[in-house]
Predict the 3D structure of the following.
Amino acid sequence: MLYRLRDAGYDAHLVGGGVRDLLLGLEPKDFDVATDAHPEEVKAVFRNCRLIGRRFRLAHVHFGCEIIKVATYRGVRDDSDDADGDQDHQSESGMLLRDNVYGTLEEDALRRDFTVNALYYNIADFSVIDYADGVDDLKAGVLRLLGDPETRLREDPVRMLRAARFAAKLGFRVHDDLAQVMPGLAHLLNDVPPARLFEEMLKLFLSGIAVSSFEHMRHYGLFGELFPDTEECLSHQEHDFPLTLVLKGLENTDRRVAEDLPVTPAFLFAVLLWEPVRRIAEALVGQGVEPGPALQQAAGQVLSSQSQRIAIPKRFSIPMREIWALQSRFLFTRGKRPRRLMAHPRFRAAYDFLLLRAAAGEADPAMADWWTEAQKHYRPEPGDAESETLAELGIDQPPPRRRRRRRKPRQDDQGGA
């Protein structure tokens, strides 16, 4: 790709985390390209290109399942010279709304977030271009923000989450200038679109660094801004139950990532939000509500509140509600109920969740052992899962439809003799 842009007459370099990770001896997860070609010019070079973004225009070049992000060199905006009359590029809090100002390679380097991400690989002589002393910070293991920390964080509050993630991933120390201002600016995360914050949570918690990311987020006051209900429970923990459950859930996620096992945001968010759900459900039960409906009501209340901070798509929130709702059914171990529960499509995730609760001391370990043993003797029957799903919806299974055989036309119907 770099050579193709160069052959088309443009300047192009590998930039950012890919260069940083290569210098650290790590395997890069993706590669970004910086160029002097404008997005429309990149699209003219690559037919497999799609332009995205409003705040800053990017080109996504598709190679099968892989996407390479190509960004034009960014420059310094001169507010006194707004020829296009665009005055809505920045919010009242200082967050950049639009930033389509192009510049030189050096200007682009100084516009990036961290010094260790402002490194460029030059294919002309296979050298590393460093305008911000990023190599020195890389050797020292320091995470330093380019420019004035408060100004840069106000421009994009998500940089605080990126600082927590990079510190967790690389084991770097956050520079004092940045560490001192983050707690006081954590509230700016409320101005970030909830959908964007959901994507950032996946990077923080599903990359094998969940425990360390969680600890950094709490240390800098970021977690409480994104999960206020959970933070409230953690600050009033009883017998270490809430904190232990969250940590064990994050440890389990890190282990599965390390073993290359599948992980799902539904289970992760179910762990992070369980304690607020449990407390509300417990209060409702004390008011006379049955355990099952109490859990459903509590789940709806917590998810409604959480969606104001982080937008959890329905494809994950629905399984979360099922995992929570099934917890009360583990209490019933007599009759046909255990078999019907084990036939439920979400049983395995709910059972794993029960094991976490038991390991944290919040659920009876004997009950978890009983369900572990019961599965050894369970043999699913055809239609078990479908019957259970229909029954939960209050729908009886319809009788099978009989196929009608088509009558073969008689010879005289076809115009024969």
Summary: Residues 1-140 form a domain with the Beta Polymerase; domain 2 fold (CATH 3.30.460.10). Residues 254 and 260 are 10 Å apart (CA to CA). The first strand starts at residue 12 and ends at 15.
